[in-house]
Specification:
This protein has about 210 residues and is of the alpha/beta class. It contains 11 helices and 6 strands. The chain folds into 2 domains: about 130 residues, Rossmann fold; about 60 residues, Orthogonal Bundle (Arc Repressor Mutant, subunit A). Helix 8 packs across helix 10.
C-alpha cells in the first residue's frame, strides 16, 4: 500500500513513519507534507492509495487547509482513501469530513492505538471512526448546532469569520470589547469548538460566510 503522510509537526511525521513501518512491511511511504500545498504536490508526484493527514495546519489560504483541502483532494484524486488525524471537537466539522468522503477519523491522542485499526478497515472497504471521536458526532444531520446559538452569538461568529477582530466587531456593533469576547467564547463553548480555526471552518460549513 502506497501512503502519503501529512502533518505540520515533524515529531508527528516521525511517529507516523515508525508506526506504519512497524505494523506492515508492505506499507510504502511515497510522500510526506507539512501543509495543504505540499500535500497536493506530493499526490501529483507519486501514485498513492492512502492519505493520512492532519486536519488543521498553518496555511495562507483556506482552500489549502481543513475542509477546503479535503474538498480539493477529493475532487482531484477521488480514488485516494483518506484518514484524518485530528483533535477537532466540533461534531459538525467531523460529520462534514465524513460527508466529503473521509474513510477514517482518528483522534491524535489515540493515534498509536487506532491508526492501524483504521487502515485495516479502509483496506476492507469500511469506514472507521475511533470510539472517542464517534462520541462527538451529532445524532442527526440538521441545523441543531446553528440554532443553538443566540442571534447575537451567530452575528459575532459570522463577523469574526469574515476576518474582523474583536475590537472591530465591538465598534461595528456598539458593544464593548468585553461583551463581544464573552459572546464569542459562549458560542465556541456551545459548539464544542476550541480554536479560531475550527470556528472559521464551522462558519463555512454552515453557510455563515
Amino acid at each position: 500500500m502506497r501512503i502519503v503522510i501529512v502533518d505540520d509537526h515533524p515529531v508527528v511525521l516521525v511517529g507516523l513513519k515508525a508506526t506504519l513501518h512497524g505494523y506492515d512491511a508492505a506499507f510504502r511511504i511515497v510522500g510526506e507534507a507539512r501543509d495543504g500545498m505540499q500535500v497536493m504536490a506530493a499526490l501529483a508526484g507519486s501514485p498513492c492509495d492512502l492519505l493520512i493527514t492532519d486536519f488543521s495546519m498553518p496555511t495562507a489560504e483556506p482552500s489549502e487547509d481543513g475542509l477546503g483541502m479535503l474538498k480539493r483532494i477529493r475532487a482531484t484524486y477521488p480514488n485516494v482513501h483518506i484518514i484524518v488525524l485530528s483533535m477537532v471537537q466540533s461534531g459538525g466539522l467531523l460529520q462534514r469530513m465524513l460527508d466529503l468522503g473521509v474513510r477514517g477519523l482518528v483522534d491524535k491522542h489515540s493515534m498509536t492505538k487506532d491508526l492501524c485499526l483504521a487502515i485495516e478497515a479502509v483496506r476492507s472497504g469500511r469506514i472507521y471512526v475511533a470510539d472517542n471521536v464517534r462520541k462527538r458526532l451529532p445524532q442527526q444531520l440538521d441545523a441543531s448546532e446553528v440554532v443553538s446559538l443566540s442571534a447575537r452569538e451567530s452575528e459575532i461568529v459570522r463577523m469574526f469569520s469574515f476576518g474582523l477582530t474583536v475590537s472591530e466587531i465591538s465598534r461595528r456593533t456598539g458593544r464593548s470589547v468585553k461583551t463581544v469576547s464573552q459572546q464569542k467564547r459562549d458560542a465556541m463553548r456551545k459548539l464544542g469548538i476550541e480554536s479560531d480555526k475550527e470556528l472559521f471552518d464551522y462558519a463555512r460549513f454552515n453557510g455563515m460566510l
